[in-house]
Amino acid sequence: MTYLDELFGLAGTTAVVTGATSGLGAACAVALGRAGASVVVAGRNRERGERVVAEIQGAGSAAELELADVAEPEQATQLADRVLARHPRVDVLVNAAGVFARDDALETRLEEWDRLMRTNVTSTFLLCQRFGRPMIERGYGKIVNFSSTDGFLGVPEQVAYNVSKGAIVQLTRTLGAEWIGHGVNVNAVAPCDFATPMIAPFLDTQEYRDWILDAIPAGRVGEPKEIVGAVLFLCSRASSMVAGHNLLVDGGRTVI
């Protein structure tokens, strides 16, 4: 084993990735597989999920598909229970499932607020709790949540999304402080807008596209492959002294 393998390699580990059937979650699941992890690909779409599983297997790692809508608390906990029944040792959890919405605060309906909170926040907390317990008992684990630049910035017309991602920032900080002493690192990545199916309909709107490209000093949105380096670092032994951190992958969005 080389020094870099010792630091960053994930051979022999088991990873669970939610929201893994498309977008950033799929990119993370494939990257973890390429780094040597056996990957549980969790998401709602069977066809897309099977393609992600096949890509991981094609790279030489084990992968399996779990269908679940983690926006439903019962499905989130049942997903964890099924996985832990087959894989008592889960080393890595990546909570990439999420939804996005834009609405003026005065027009935001309670149903929409609840949908974002259940998907972006409640599912993340429940899965951290469910997978975190055996990690703490074993004395080792890596959890990576998905926050966002919008968890730090007061972006108009997306109050529910901003609040949900701000909650992930604080959830990550709190669990990071609570669990680092037990050998479990809880951190988050905070991307700006990336070219994913979730954001594509909004980027098709010229006004939004012009605004976001002007707001990102890099002058473009991110590509899914550009999130994986940060995620692999936080999933590896190289991040053993990193806790409660929100790693911004934002093309300078929060710098200006």
Give the helices and strands, then pairings:
Layout: H1 3-8, E1 14-18, H2 23-34, E2 38-43, H3 46-58, E3 63-67, H4 73-86, E4 92-95, H5 110-138, E5 141-146, H6 159-179, E6 184-191, H7 200-203, H8 206-215, H9 228-235, E7 246-249
Record keyword descriptors for this entry:
256 residues, 7-stranded parallel beta sheet, 9 helices, 7 strands
Describe this protein's structure.
The chain has helices spanning 3-8, 23-34, 46-58, 73-86, 110-138, 159-179, 200-203, 206-215, 228-235; strands at residues 14-18, 38-43, 63-67, 92-95, 141-146, 184-191, 246-249. Strands 3-2-1-4-5-6-7 form a seven-stranded parallel β-sheet, with helices on both faces. With 256 residues, it is of the alpha/beta class. Helix 2 (23-34) runs parallel beside helix 3. The model has no long low-confidence stretch (mean pLDDT 96). It is built from nine helices and seven strands, in the order αβαβαβαβαβαβαααβ.
